[in-house]
Amino acid sequence: MDFFQHQQKAKRRTGLLVLYFCLAILAVVASATAAVVLTLGLSGVRPSAEGGHILFNPIIYWTALLTFTVIVFGCLLKSWQLRKGGTALAEMLGGRLINTSTRDKAERQLLNVVEEMSIASGIPVPQVYVMDQESTINAFAAGFRPSEAVIAVTRGALNHFSRDELQAVMGHEFSHILNADIRINLRMVAVL
């Protein structure tokens, strides 16, 4: 299997993940509604006059509608909060934009690696954030377009990675930028 076949397979899997996510939202609505049906049934609430069965009680429909509305409202609110793209996400997670004139050796090395990777990949240099409060080793890229991408790295990654390891991680993050994974990741953060 060549690269393009792998890429097509990955796109199909992404489609399946989106479908599973939609099914999960429906399962949450169904679970909330089932909990209300169970509660009404155990509390002895009489069915509505129209249908004669507890499932025809208007409370059931309002519960499903309210649950779905809360999910949609939460998604829209988070999408609005993330409207500035990767910058908003990095700042929301406690990231600090690295100043290009930084004197911190680890930050300077990171900026140099990002600039090198940017030149090699032919995309604009993304803004680089560091999450100072995070001692774990992690990094992410986010944004709506490659020209608006940001890369965030935890302080733990800066403190523990050698230059070669940092370059490998940045190569991985640049692959997300080049393959437009950053856009779907940002949207999924908003929906989750």
Structural overview:
- The protein is 64% helix and 8% strand.
- The chain has helices spanning 3-43, 58-81, 86-92, 105-121, 155-160, 163-178, 181-191, and strands at residues 96-97, 127-131, 139-142, 150-154.
- A hairpin with a 7-residue loop joins strand 3 and strand 4.
- The longest helix is centred in the N-terminal third of the chain and has 41 residues, at 3-43.
- It is elongated.
- The two termini are 33 Å apart.
Layout: helices, strands, pairs:
Elements: H1 3-43, H2 58-81, H3 86-92, E1 96-97, H4 105-121, E2 127-131, E3 139-142, E4 150-154, H5 155-160, H6 163-178, H7 181-191
Parallel strand pairs: 2-4
Antiparallel strand pairs: 1-2, 3-4
Q: What attributes does this structure have?
A:
192 residues; alpha+beta; 4 strands; elongated
Order of strands side by side in the largest beta sheet?
1-2-4-3
Gyration radius (Cα, Å) is 23 Å
Q: What is the N-to-C succession of helices and strands?
A: HHHEHEEEHHH
Report low-confidence residues grouped into runs of 5 or more.
none
Oligomer: single chain
How many E-type strands? 4
Q: What is the residue-averaged pLDDT?
A: 86
Count helical runs. 7
Note the main sheet: 4 strands, mixed
Q: State the helical fraction.
A: 55-70%
**Residues in β-strands, percent:** 5-15%
